[in-house]
TrEMBL record:
Transmembrane spans: none
Family the UniProt entry places it in: Belongs to the YjdM family.
Domain Protein YjdM C-terminal: 46-113
PANTHER family associated with the record: PROTEIN YJDM, PROTEIN YJDM-RELATED
Protein name: Alkylphosphonate utilization protein
Superkingdom classification of source: Bacteria
Pfam families: YjdM, Zn_Ribbon_YjdM
Record-annotated Protein YjdM N-terminal domain positions: 5-32
Length: 113
C-alpha cells in the first residue's frame, strides 16, 4: 500500500485515507485521492519555523533576535525580508536585510509573511 502524499495545505506527513479522500489531522484539510495524483510539482523542501513551505521570491519575517557574525549589529524580531532565494547548505536562505545587507539565514528562524 503506497504512502499517502503530504498535505497540500500545511505539508503535514500525518495524512490518512478516509474512503476516497485523504485527510490531514493537523489542519483538517480534506482532498480527493484523484486530485492528489494531479498535484503541483514537488517543492524545494525548505520550510519555515511553522512548517510552511518556502519558495524563491517569498517574504519572510524573523522570529528571533539574530546576532550578525563579525559585527555588533542585530537582526531584530519582526524584521521583514523580501524576495528571498533558497540555497543548499547550512543556511538555506540568501537575502538582503534592510540596514544590514546581504546575508544567509536558517529557515528555522523565519516564518512566511
Amino acid at each position: 500500500m503506497p504512502e499517502p502524499p503530504p498535505c497540500p495545505h500545511c505539508s503535514s506527513v500525518y495524512v490518512y485515507e478516509d474512503g476516497n479522500n485523504y485527510v490531514c489531522p493537523e489542519c483538517a484539510h480534506e482532498w480527493s485521492q484523484d486530485a492528489a495524483e494531479v498535484a503541483a510539482p514537488e517543492a524545494s523542501g525548505v520550510t519555515d519555523a511553522n512548517g510552511t513551505p518556502l519558495a524563491d521570491g517569498d517574504t519572510v519575517t524573523v522570529i528571533k533576535d539574530l546576532k550578525v557574525r563579525g559585527s555588533s549589529s542585530v537582526v531584530k524580531v519582526g524584521t521583514k525580508v523580501k524576495n528571498i532565494r533558497l540555497t543548499d547548505g547550512d543556511h538555506d536562505i540568501d537575502c538582503k536585510i534592510p540596514g544590514i545587507g546581504a546575508m544567509g539565514l536558517k529557515s528555522e528562524f523565519v516564518r512566511k509573511a
